[in-house]
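Example with several molecule types.
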Amino acid sequence: MDNLFSRKYVLQGIFIVLALVLIGKLFYMQVVSDKYFLLSNNNVLRKIYTFPARGVIFDRKGKVLVQNEPVYDLLVIPNQVKEFDTLEFCNLIGIDMPGFRKRFHKASVQSRYQPSTFEKQLSVQTYAALQEKLSRFPGFLVQGRTVRHYPDSVAGQFFGYVKEVTQKDIDDNDGYYRPGDYIGKAGVEKQYNDALRGERGVINMLYDARNVPQGSYLEGKFDTLAKSGEKVVSSLDIEIQKLGEQLMTNKVGSIVAIEPSTGEVLAFVSSPGYDPNRMVGRQQGNNYMDIFGQANRPFLVRPISGYYSPGSSFKPLDDLIALQEGVITPDMTFNCPGVYWAGNHPVKCEHVDGNISLRRGLARSCNVYACHVFQRLMTQSRFKSTKQAYDEWQAKVRKFGLGQKLDIDMPFERKGTLFTSDQYTKRFGKYWGYTTVISLAIGQGEMNATPLQMANIMAIIANKGYYIKPHLIKSIGDRKVIKKDYVQKNYVDVDAAHFEPVIDGMQDAVNAPWGTANASSIPNIIMCGKTGTVQNPHGKNHSVFIGFAPRDNPKIAIAVIVENAGYGGTYAAPIASYLTEKYLTGSISAGRAEKAEAMKKISALPELPKPKIKVLPKNSDSTGKQPSVPAVVPQNNTALNTKNTAATP
Amino acid sequence: MINQQQNNRFFFNVDWVTILIYIALCAVGFVNIYASIYNPEKSDLFNFGSNYGKQLIYIGSGLILGFSILLMDAKFFSIFAPVIYGITMFLLLVVLVVGRNVGGNQAWIPLGSFRIQPSEFAKFGTALMLARYISSFNPKLTNLRPILIAAAIILLPMALIMLQPDAGSTLVFLSFMFPLYREGLPGYLLVIFWGAVVLFILNLYLQPVILISSILVLGGLFVYFNRKKMQRMIMITVITISAIGYLFVAKILFEKVLQPHQRTRIELILGLKTDPKGAGYNVNQSKIAIGSGQVLGRGFLLGTQTKYGYVPEQSTDFIFSTIGEEWGFAGCFVVIGLYVFLLVRVVNIAERQRSVFSRVYGYSMACIIFFHVFINIGMAIGLMPVIGIPLPLISYGGSSLWSFTVLIFIFLKLDSNRMGFI
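Resulting structure tokens for the full complex:
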């Protein structure tokens, strides 16, 4: 038997080896891999989210512009649904039977045991009606959340809108968002989304194997409460915003008003606009397609992405540069025979004024005067070539904010057009001179500006030499300064003294009997301004007015553009004057009020360019409904190729 | 007076280390059963209506049972081994008639509010009988006749249990192969048997063509290297051919004889099928629970998988998932370490016996317990098929606890009497 004794070790060896196999596998499962740990949390933990209310937006005087309204999402847990009166149910929430089946199927596919959304954003009324009878519909439950409400129904493009996140939003935000969350998609809602959205609350709920909740993980140690979004105070003055939109009724164009001393935007009108409330709720998708299909592109945010040649409203800026350069003095006169010949190319005036000085030239908007100024700037003896002169000049123009973004706190800002000499060389070849680009003297040609940039130029003149970057938001929560840029002064390198004669001319333009906008003078307030009548290839001239008021210690700088409406003095100037008066005095004086009312009713819609009408391709509307209105292909409001004569009174 | 002295000597001779490990494992069992069915609203420790309360009764009565065994005469077990074996076989027959069907197996005899599982008691019955046969006849296990007799002793309970049918408990009896090996059963028989098992599994994994051709290549190589020795060449050829023949038999066995749920379980464990919600659900959830314990575990009563009922049969067959989740790798290591320490010690004790009966019995007990431990933990972590056998002394259940208690304490009694002749 002794030889068999050693077999003891064989058996003990087997015990130990097999035990090591078990321990090895356990070591892998428990120590090396964290796969099972994660799987176990998936099993047991489910995060239940509570949605925060988005931040409220106020106007500069503390009036609520955007608030939240409760709505109710209807959820369904398919495996808990028992037989019920589907017809009554459908009537309650306003859907039909096929719609019911579709939704129910979709929810069942998602999960049979978890709640999934059945119908979104039931109104309070629907909810009230449903709540009474909810016990009759087992498996259905209601989850509250809030949606935006805009009491004044104005400034749609300013607010933008809020929409459910797309997969792309989820991917782009490092997992912050989950399907069903909402995100700002345009305007302030987009720009300040991070401040407005607030923080989602979460409950880490433990579930047992039968999906019955067993309370919060570690007694709620990791749970958080929903935190409402921060309150945001906008710089808008809702009163003049509303007035501006009313005045722009049935007109296409834009109004931007800025407080010169702060750069705060007071009015941000883009016409045609839309009621922001239409971009809320269950009809959002349909309304979006409807608005999208309307004429004149209501979704275009004209103040920052509309392109307009500044026209004569550019003249004050050019005069300022000329004064600073010393190529003109305020008293220097040029003879205006009614036409300026740039080579064999006439630039006409609508009047014959004889010898004309800076002040009168601006008040009368004399093209000949402007061309002489431009000619002098381009032919200074210190420059070797026109190109060099031009580049110096355009660099100075750029200082006024043209041809570059002003970094306003709003998405989709465009920078406008201002050529460099190289771009001209590319276009005209090596040999071009000031006569080739003479239309720049009167703000036409290769020059486009947004309404915001035009208003900003007025702010510069009002401030006599600097601007603060325009912005739409004054404060977020307790933070009064939201960006350092928005308190810094940007100097344009023109001495304050040079502004006086220019401002004199602009004062006359509005207040002197010979001024181009003298019909728009405001009683007891000296508004300084400049009209523009901008040629463009799309029909009638754009009516433009830029100005500021009052002359001493200016409170408002404004730019008004009415597309294809005609003379600057006819539409833009009066609209600007009503707004300015309303802002400065709180009301429009007697006699002018009626005119303002009349202005609201005047229709000056541009004729639709016929050959460009196209029916939109059948679009992917969520309901499959086709937009009923044939859409107009984006209208190009630039005047790039007009370098011919301009008649600008 | 003399009697008293004798008793004292007996208790002195009892291996107290084994008893301590026994108690430790029972305690581990109680703690984890308590955690498995812990309910914060009704956490009364001595609630005898609940399973942990019952387990406390089983442990208490098990200890009484164990110490009464120590008070019995050691000779009783060798003398009455055939009777005990006979009774347990009879109970295996009875259960087929009056048995209660639980979970597809007719394995339980109802006794009032309790019920007993005769297959548990057949384990020590068979161990006693096998020890008695070898110690009485001192057979040479290299000869066919003694091998057949020993095989008959083992196969009888296996056949009866298979009729219930309880595949898990049947397979446990395979562990008797190892005590026979210790007593002289040729090693090649074990190699052939386990080789057959491995081939059976490979047969399910691999394409027949690949398997057969690789066996042929292997056989050919062996023949080539032994080409000088005629006898070996013939032997290798025979082995090769019978291995191939076996493959076909095994295939038929697997497809025709095994029940579908057993087939599925085998296929699942071998990774031939994936079915996380069906038969694989238990294993999957058990693996998640154990794996989530990480190094130190989630802590006593803090396991979420086990507490919220994700692991079925969690206090019985899958009790190890609770240990794994709440006590982590450290806990698992300690529990497995306790078992290995116990069994290596039992083998050492068995070897110091003068009586063959005690030695054979000791080996049988060690191998039965190890088989349970390895298969049970193996199935909880997905290494072994789910054949539903308990974790000795830890799993909830009276029959299982008592049968292991009896198994261990009979050995302790035999050992305490090792100086005497049985």
